[in-house]
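Need tokens for this chain, all 353 residues.
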Amino acid sequence: MTAAGEDWRPSASHAHLVERAALLRRAREFFAAREVLEVDTPLLVNAAVTDVHIHSARVRLTEPGVAQPGSAAPAPAAPAPPLFLHTSPEYAMKRLLAAGSGDIYQICHVVRGLECGRLHNPEFTLIEWYRTGFTLASLMDEVEALVRTLLGAASAARASERLSYREAFLRELALDPFSASEEALARAAQPLGFRRAPLPPRADRGATSSASAGARDEWLELLMASLVGPRLGRSALTFVHSYPASQAALARLDRADARVAERFELYCEGIELANGFHELAAADEQRARFEHDNAERRRLGLPLAAPDERLLAALAAGLPDCAGVALGFDRTLMLALGAGHIEQVLPFPTARA
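Here are the structure tokens for all 353 residues:
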């Protein structure tokens, strides 16, 4: 706890800041050795994300009726289209891929609303990269190589394991996430104090099949975040792959089994570090997923998000076959240093910004 009047000071120690710089340098050396191009895309973007679990911060650059620098006339009364702080550089990086960039990576700050806690700060650093022609398995290999490089001695004694989403649920909860009833999922959540899924907003009560599917995913995501995930990666770097198709986000579905998506997450010490996809390249399917997300947002009473038309145009122009991943740099640094709170590895958390 910082004394009153002392919150101008950084929350990270000088030694941790030195180590932060060293790990950033190590990450860039990793990609340089593999001839992956570093890119730098805008922090301000034209569209919010539609994912119901991610909340975009809206930005207003001008105030209506206020004169702008160098102009005697006030700004027009009509509001300009909204801008948002990006929650990931994914959309812009896919536009670069469609334009022929080849393999690319980026280390950047991103901003997500409603995220605060031991492992969360609204503004944090991602390492995101895309590899053309990579399978999901080859990308997991590369993620593991980078994470071991960044963790250093903290990873030396760790094994490596890869589990399907189904295997993870069976091992940790003795539940099959694809066949268990909603009632069985609810019973598994009882130790967390939950007896039923949250009701949708009043206007949407009176259950539809999509609402039922949404409630089922709410149970699965609650169980993964609160019971399954925290048990993973205790003695190994644990990759969980083959997520339910309903949680595909921007990943392709598995051609051999349409019930699952070509998506993985990496866990270490119960902490989610990375989220990777074999990237969806079909513009029509991506538009349909955006529309489905907005239907879920409407059901949950969340603001709707217009789809990013520039991303959809890039997909229609042709996204190369590629796999991509976002790695939480601050969490990885926490594990490398044995830090217990994200503020210990940030110069200035949002509370002190």
